[in-house]
Amino acid sequence: MIPLGTLRASAILALAIAAPWLSLLPLPGLGALVAATITLIAAFHGYGLLIATALRRNVAPALAVQWGIALTIALGGLLISVGAYRLPAQTILVYTGAALHSLLLAAQFSRRAEPVAECLRHGTLRYSIVPSVLVIAVGALHILGAVGDFGARPFDDDGNHLAQLQRLIDTGTLGDAIGFPRTSQLGGQLTLGALANVVGGPAFLRMVDSGLGFTLVLWLAISRIRPRDPSTALCSVLLVIVAAALPFVTPDPAPRWIAAGLVLALFATVQDHAEGAIREVLPISLIAGALTALRLELAPVAVVGVMAAWALRDRAEFRASRRFLVLVLVPVATLLPFVFVRIAARSEAGDALALLVPRRSGFLPLGVVTGTGVVAAMLTRRMTDRLLAWLVFAIVVGVTAIVTQLVGLRPYSIAFLAPIVIGAGLAVVTRHLRAQPTSSIARPGTAMLVFALLACVVTFQGRDASGRVRWSRRYTELISGVEIARTVRVDSSTTIYARLMQHVPAGEAVGVWVLQPESLDYAAHRIFDLRSPRVAALRGRATTASSTLTAVIGRLPVRFLLIEIDHHGPAERRQTLFGRLWCDAAPADPLCLDELERLAQGDVVATEANVRLVALRSGR
Amino acid sequence: MIDPATRATSGGGAARVGAIVAVVALGFAGFAWSDTVLRGGIAWLAFLWFVLSGWGFLVVRAARVDDPDGGLRALWGACGYLAVAGWMLALGMLTRPVVLVLIAAGVAGFAWRELTTPVASWHRARTAARSLRANQGLATIVVVLSAIALLHVLGAVSALDRNPWDDDVAYTPFVKRLLDTGNLIEPFSFRRLGAYGGQTVLQALAGARGSLANVHLIDKGLCFVVALSLLVGYARRLRTQHLWTILVVLVLVLLPDTSINTASYWSGAALLIGLYRTVALERWSLVGLVGAAACTLRQNYIALTILFVGIALLSQLTAEARASSWRESWRAQRRTWFVCAGIALVVIVPYWIAAYRSNGTFLFPYMQGTWNANVSLRATAPTWTDELQFFVWCLIETQPLVILPPLFAVIVFTKDTRRTRPLIALLVANAVVLALMAHSFVGSDANHLWRYAFAGAVTLLAVFALEVGAADDTPVKLVPLGTWVLLASLLLQLTVGSGALAKRYAQMFGDLREASLIDRHGDPGVQAERARYAALQAALPTGVRVAVMLDDPAYLDFRRNQIFNLDTPGYASLRPGMPAFEGPEAVRRYLIERGIRYVAFVRSDVSRYFYRRPFWIWRIFNDAEIFQVMSAYTIDAIDTFASLATTTTVLHDRDGLVALDLGEAAPTEASVDAPHVDRRAAYVRALADREQLHDAWSLNTRDNILFEDGLTGLVFLDDRAGEPAWYEVLHPPGKEPVRGKAARWLYRRAHLRVRGDRDMRLVLRGTLNMAVIHTRPRLDVSLDGQLLASVVADEHGAFVIDVVVPRAVLTHGWSDLYLVFNSISEPQKEVRDLRAARLENVEWEPK
Description:
heterodimer, A: mainly alpha, 5-stranded mixed sheet, 5 strands, 64% helix, B: alpha+beta, Jelly Rolls, 3 domains, 8-stranded antiparallel sheet, 55% helix, globular
């Protein structure tokens, strides 16, 4: 007779194997979204399991998912570099991952079922139930709410994500160094967003970070704590409450929670490697490369993670083996494809880009970061817990690099302090709770007191914050998003743009200033998106032909402009006395228009609603 | 507890008699000073404490249990009084003399105890004083805490302000009616429908001395003291460390006051704390007494009490079954269940009888009784996401305790080794009741829900903290992290609670000054009001039935006339229901047919608060849906009586108070075809048109269109001033007031829900502020995912949508209508708080 615990464990595992394929069923509304999310998570888990199987290691599912995310970013980069990351390739990538998940779990069925059955028999699983249920409930809210969130800004600091996603789908690669210059991000987040789009459509792009990323980092943290008694279970629950209450809003699809999860995974893997649970360094290298591909602001932390992996094992053994090569070369190999594509895009628009992208300020930031790093290293050299010392070092270096603009540009890069602090902070907390025997956690101590105080204060801060970061407001808006997620968003702009672009010969280069560039067909034409903050800052300036905006457009290989008229010029002019006197009466006067609007007065090829296609007179 | 075996009498007989005389003297002082607020109120409050203690001793003797500490004894006494008073109420005999007799019984109980207890009260007080003197630090803290608590009590005694919406129109008149007539028969009262009357019976203790001025004496005064005493007594029993006891007491005395009227607040907390302690003692007969008494105070306590006691009994049964078997366990335990339930029934049944006599139901809303079934207290057609939203909001925005979310987590991981597991039972009961209340209150706001949940939440926090801080052999086991979280939470609560202290104490000292002034010179305002109402009532024949719609019915003599109080017109009435939206003659006929020939009301332009017509007009367009519905009925009633005052005999019309004789002959019935809800909707629309507020009406939720989210509330704009640019701060005010233009600000995505059973015409008009938006965005309007229309604003920012929606699309109930601008925000600005687009008119009419 099969023991009940074994039966239950087998049922759980069987469900895990079958779950990713639910998205193929015609499920209604929110059910379809949930199934799609499960497929995506299973895909990441499948790739993580592949790495673990290759290394012949057992890895917790939450950590395997993070490894899988890193691997998909690396694979995506390779495909992007050869222009093959179109929808079919994305689809294959997702379902291959899901298939790996199911097949590897099935192949390792008995090996995986036994630990679960053991937990069920000893009753320790019950301490995981409350934290797990809470993570699922909060995560579901974040995921589904983010899908329906209409708060995404039209463009962010470094390119319109939705438009780039469409570009990937249409062309299989990235381009357009004007609309997507990649001064701070190389496109790693977009590779994930494209996979999300396969299972759930464009709305899933918003879900990747604030929904899925948030849930996965919580899952990983709790998985590292291993709730096995009331103390650790309570810690886990408080962690979820504090994370939910954190007065922190992600206003755009940029990677914050995904980055936090990868930072935590990086140092968790370094810890396991240092303790001998994992001998190979491939996962560490992959994560380091993926972090850098996500955001350059995270590169210093990735470098410190790699250094920690090298420093915390026997160096003699390390240097002698190929592990050293893997540790150094894999991150480079992950980044190279993205860098290659970036260089190619920049070469196409290099002259114009030179007018837009500011120069960096020399070697001073590097000097400051190096000096701070040296000081941090000296202060932590006497710490007995070496991993903790490296974590502190990582936080210091990472924060200093951003603040000094060694990586990234303020004010946009400041937002990436959060993933570093959150990820590394979680690594500190989970390390402490994971390593301690139950009896020591049960004793009162300073760490417990600090954690309790912080938990209460942060929870109260979130409750009492004002505006959109207020806890109740964030969650009621998430639930409104869940309501919207049930309804398909209808957008009429696709057909307007398509009808106008029919007048442009295939393959021709077009500059666009439209409100929804994600509605364009990037396969039919070479598109340069002018509606970016750097170009927008040039509107309303001097009217001479040598103005920067004209120069930028002049240096691009574009022969057509697609412009959505927004009356920006007259609105700007009204800020002056002359403008208010003259332009109120004659808003169409050339003196009242800005540079772009003057260009739009040129050779109009076609117009519909407030969108206009103009042939440039420069006659290239 | 005193071991009866010792019986070593301590304290002289003279001292004991002296104590009894002192208590009686307090009573006489309160009685004699019935015209005073402060002196008489304080004396009476102190007197009532001893009365409850006496009643408690009677209960102790009847139940043959050990004499507990003062707090628990007083609480049992309050329950004993409620139990006996309930039968008087059911028989319609609970008049002032009877209440005084019951009070005298309490005094007798106190005297009995004082004469027979081994340790006299004065001796206990002396012993306590000596032990405090031995510990100077603790003595200082005790003195300070006592002083703060005393201030709180003084503030409750001297607070004269009542809630005009609830206390003036209903709760205080209930007490007056009870003392005058001995019953609470109010078939037209919405508030009587929803409560069994226990709180009113308690309030009668205060009013029995001859004054209704101290409206907060019972709940915020006496019951607050009982609650604190219960907790201190529990702490002593558990041998809780002083730190925890001090923290708990401090948190409670510094709690912000979130009650808005004299309904059960601290009385509920006291009874629930007492119930918890009684369950912990496993005195099941008394559990039935206390539990049933708690149910009489507020309806939401019913579910909480039943769940709490039921789970505790079940836990006990389960614990026993583990040792033996289910059958044997039930055999051993069933007497406990029956005794508990039986005594509870004995206590609650008279209140059921009284409620049924008044409103034809004792299980509202499951039995509707005199309730108007056409009115709903919930928002129209809430979706599951609406309910979830409200539930989550309430879980996060807890009031007045700000630290409940982490505390819930801590209690979940607490081990309660007692076989009844009362702590876990209370947690589960609170959680379930919270969910049920969230379901019932959807459309309201979190503050209202937490007023109702106050008693349960405070009880849970207080007993948990005391048990955690108890001696090492406490049955409640909590890991150190949890203890730290609890400690940090209490400290945080103190910090938050102390924020508004200065203002609160300033208010309190103002009340004290006013009260002491009234004590010296009387209250001329009250005297004038008494005279006005006396003159009104004098115009009515003695003994007749009269329907009243007055600001302060408590000034009426309920013995002189049979009075029916319309505290919320239209919500409750004798069958078949008072007509609404059918004109004044229909109402006249209805009242005459029910033997109510006379009416007394206050004119709208003189009403202090509740019957001001312009206020209800405002409310129809600016408040939550439940109050919009209430506004329609109230305005209809106001207009009806005003009209009747021109067509019937006016007996009295002075100072805004009017008495009418409706005559003997009932008018003939005019046929009314339209269903009630449709009549109400048509009435509101016609009212809006008459008030020239059609646009405002069009922007409001009504029976076939709901404004869900993505829009602000109604605003009124000065149409003359033009659109403000981003650099303009104010528009100069005009010379004369101008009727504003109704509008709702839109966010980038607005969500409405619509329904219809035929082809419907949808018209949307709005304007974008071109001076700040710098673009002419496109507006897409979709219905259930299908694009209906797409327009671009014109050069002035105006947009109009005018489409016909075919019936075929509207077949499945409510449909989701989304208005989405393709751009409305600036990247650096708050994307959800940009007031750049507004909706000015929404028509949704049959084509």
